[in-house]
């Protein structure tokens, strides 16, 4: 049976909330991951850069998942470099459908 972990990062997104999300990912054993950035309201550009740094430096944690869906407002959507592994969505139902393909 496939399991999905859904992590909502409360806005405004701060370093502490990013750390909480990374800790949850570290302790998770699910097959699929949904990272929900809500309204994508970062406390600062430094917090946004910190998130990117955490995701890149802890790629080993993310590679354990079969697929990752990131939820964020439509204006922040962009193609990813690995669309078969992770994609960005503004609609949760579409994200879940893609994860379950």
Walk me through the structure.
Helix content is 37%, strand content 19%. The protein is α/β, with parallel strands linked by helices. The chain has one domain. It has a four-stranded parallel beta sheet, sandwiched between helices. Strand 1, helix 1 and strand 2 form a beta-alpha-beta unit. Helix 1 (15-26) packs parallel to helix 2 (45-57). The longest helix has 13 residues, at 45-57. It is globular. The mean pLDDT is 96.
Please specify the SSE layout and strand pairing:
Layout: E1 4-8, H1 15-26, E2 32-36, H2 45-57, H3 59-62, E3 67-71, E4 86-89, H4 92-99
Helix pairs in contact: 1-2
Task: Decide which structural class fits the backbone.
Answer: alpha/beta
Strand order of the largest sheet: 1-2-3-4
Say how many strands there are: 4
Computed CA radius of gyration, to the nearest angstrom: 13 Å
* Main β-sheet description: 4 strands, parallel
Q: Can you tell me the overall shape?
A: globular
Range of helix content: 25-40%
Unreliable spans: none
Order of helices and strands: EHEHHEEH
Number of helices: 4
Give the N-terminus to C-terminus distance in angstroms.
Answer: 14 Å
Strand content: 15-25%
- Regarding quaternary structure, what we see is single chain
**On the 0-100 scale, what is the average pLDDT?**
96
Number of individual domains: 1
């Amino acid at each position: 049976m496939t399991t999905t972990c859904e992590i909502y990062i409360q806005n405004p997104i701060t370093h502490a909330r990013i750390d909480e999300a990374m800790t949850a990912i570290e302790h998770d054993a699910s097959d699929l991951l949904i990272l929900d950035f809500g309204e994508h309201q970062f406390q600062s550009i430094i917090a946004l850069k910190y998130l990117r740094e955490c995701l890149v430096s802890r790629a080993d944690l993310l590679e354990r998942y079969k697929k990752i869906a990131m939820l964020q407002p439509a204006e922040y959507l962009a193609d990813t470099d690995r669309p078969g592994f992770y994609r960005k969505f503004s609609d949760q139902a579409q994200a879940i459908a893609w994860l379950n393909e």
